[in-house]
Amino acid sequence: MVQIMGHHSPFSAKQAESALVELHARYSKKLLGYFIKMLNKDVDLAQDFVQEIFLKLLEKKHLFDPDKKFYSWIFTIASNMCKTAYRHHGKTVSLHTETIHHSVLGESELEKNLFLKALQTSIDNLEHPHKTVFVLRYLEHFSLNEIAEITDCSLGTVKSRLFYATKKMTDQLKPYDPSFETTLFKMI
Q1: How many Å apart are CA 144 and CA 142, to the nearest integer?
Q2: Would you call 7 helix, strand, or coil by DSSP?
Q3: Best CA proximity match to 35, nearest among 68, 69, 74, 65
Q4: Which residues, other chains included, contact 38 with Cβ-Cβ below 8 Å and sequence gap of 6+?
Q5: DSSP state at residue 127
Q6: What is the pLDDT along the chain (188 residues), one digit of tens a residue?
Q7: 3-class DSSP state for residue 2?
Q8: Rounded CA gap, 58 and 121, in Å?
Q9: How far apart are CA 115 and CA 60, in angstroms?
Q10: Which end is more exposed in the chain, N or C (fewer Cβ atoms within 10 Å of the end residue's Cβ)?
Q11: Judging by beta carbons within 10 Å of its beta carbon (0-12, 13-18, 19+), is residue 178 exposed, middle or buried?
């Protein structure tokens, strides 16, 4: 029996190390991507957070509920880490006020790149709670119920935050809507 951080484990030290290596292999890339999105593309900080989360797993392993998905649990910890960073450092995203010129998505690679840049800026500009549910839903592909569990919010709150996030983003990205062009110069 091995003792890890004051807790006895029925696993040998080699088995515990092997399990941690397997968890790291399975989840580190996904967590890194999540942290990069949530921490304004600060790769160094995101990498630090990935390392820190695996230390937290060791410290908080007794809090894991085997009736729940491990994937949801680890993202709950990740979400809380981002929330704490946001609270302690204020907005970790810089608000870009650059003007986005009207463009209609077509075959042009330039137009697509402009749209993708505007989309990323739009995500970055969301308030932290809205950004969290948006990233978890549309970039990490969690279900609404999983997001409610991860963020410790009601399902209604998750839906409300998604609604406001998508509404704000839709307003910011309106110049990229092909139907916008037909109404932009219409005579009243």
Answers
A1: 7
A2: strand
A3: 74
A4: 82, 92, 131, 132, 135
A5: -
A6: 334 444 445 556 677 678 778 888 999 999 999 998 888 888 999 999 999 998 888 777 778 888 888 888 899 889 888 888 877 765 443 333 233 334 444 457 777 778 888 888 888 889 989 999 999 998 888 899 999 998 989 999 999 999 999 999 888 888 777 665 544 444 34
A7: strand
A8: 35
A9: 41
A10: C
A11: exposed
Q: Residues 80, 128: contact at Cβ < 8 Å?
A: no
Helix, strand, or coil here: 146?
Answer: helix
Could you give the angle at which helices 13-38 and 43-59 cross, rounded to 10 degrees?
A: 140
Partnered with residue 4 across adjacent β-strands are: 7
**Rg of the chain's alpha carbons, rounded to an integer?**
20
Q: Based on DSSP, count helices (H) and strands (E) in the chain, helices before strands.
A: 8, 2
Which DSSP state fits 126?
A: S
Please name every residue paired with 3 in a beta bridge, in sequence order, or none if there are none. Answer: 8
Nearest CA to 160 out of 168, 184, 73 is that of 168
**DSSP code at position 76:** H
d(CA 73, CA 65): 8
Tally of CA atoms within 13 A in the half-sphere of 41 that contains its CB: 6
Domains and CATH numbers, the chain: 1-92 (1.10.1740.10), 98-188 (1.10.10.10)
pTM of the model: 0.62
Structure tokens at 172: 């910011």
